[in-house]
Amino acid sequence: MVLTKEYRICMPMTVEEYRIGQLYMIARHSFEQSSNGEGVEVVANEQINDEKNGNGQFTEKRIHLSSHLPYWIQSLIPKIFYVTEKAWNYYPYTITEYTCSFIPKFSISIQTRYEDNNGSTENCLDLTPEELEGREVDFLDIAFDEIKPHHYKESEDPKLFKSEKSGRGPLVEGWRDNQKPIMCCYKVVHAKFEVWGLQTKVEDYVQAAIREILLLGHRQAFTWMDEWFNMTLEDVRAYEREMQAKTNMKVKTALEEAEKNQDGQDSKKSSQPPTPKSPKSPLGTPSSESKSWFSWS
């Protein structure tokens, strides 16, 4: 059974303001989090048109994140590993999909809609009766939900931040009931991993990771407000292009270095005599020289 959660994240701004803040936050966050060959590499970013949803923006990204995974997942995948993200942004409605060529039975799909309210719409994304029955709603509070200690920064704490340009903040207990303006991101997340014995563990891990990312990203979008508040859509798109170019170069350079190091290790291994194997092994167990249980494609 696919694990389905609906996250509702309120923000002290309007839907139109959030559009700018979100684009700024993603571009800056991607650059800051990219290091040692890990991070977000932008493959495509182009305008699109859809009969139902109108004009929009399509992006395709490669998210390099091997060392950010728990060890029990790292043991199953190549060292140079990425997840593909494809997003169709018909703001205020977006569709995002995550897949991995090494793990074909793994996928995440996210539908998002943004509304100028405090999370009060019961079925914002028009889920079916069956989907509603299996849905779990999770309200995220950017000010008072705890984040992991290594992610905490005083300058990014909504309980302490006050915007000089908008006058908003700090956020206090009950802010979602009293704050004006306020908007809500409604995100329905379907996580699927159809591998017997690991399905529940992986799907639970994915949902927990998504929750942490959403919480951190939205805290940053608010506390970085004075950086983007006066930007137009054209301004933030130009900033996005600039940061994407810098991020791609940062990730590419580190990946090339990682591949060189990997090739050097493989050459050293191949020069050593192979370890004798038991004759007629019925299991065909891979030798220790195998890079991965999955083929590189």
From TrEMBL:
Residues forming coiled coils: none
GO molecular function, one term: phosphatidylinositol binding
Disordered, as annotated region: 250-297
Residues in Phosphatidylinositol transfer protein N-terminal domain copies: 3-244
Compositional bias per record (Basic and acidic residues), positions renumbered to this chain: 253-269
Pfam families in UniProt: IP_trans
GO CC term, one of those recorded: nucleus
Family (UniProt): Belongs to the PtdIns transfer protein family. PI transfer class IIB subfamily.
PANTHER family: CYTOPLASMIC PHOSPHATIDYLINOSITOL TRANSFER PROTEIN 1 (PTHR10658:SF54), PHOSPHATIDYLINOSITOL TRANSFER PROTEIN (PTHR10658)
Protein name, UniProt field: Cytoplasmic phosphatidylinositol transfer protein 1
Organism: Euphydryas editha (Edith's checkerspot)
Organism phylogeny: Eukaryota, Metazoa, Ecdysozoa, Arthropoda, Hexapoda
